[in-house]
Amino acid sequence: MPMAFELAKDSETKNWQFAKIAIIVLAGIAFIFLGLSVITLAAFYAPIIIAVVILIVLYERWKEKKVR
Asked: Is the pLDDT at 57 greater than 80, yes or no?
């Protein structure tokens, strides 16, 4: 794993070096816009699902009391 930015080596062309940098930048941008939004939505899904389950349980209990 490289520890510092390295210039193109003899076996690599400068175009390939720039292409690798562009790929890394695009992957970072995709993570920022897609990855963070998915993580944020996942943080909100759990409480919403728990709230729905609680409401269903409370409704069923209220319905049982009404029948008695």
From this structure: yes
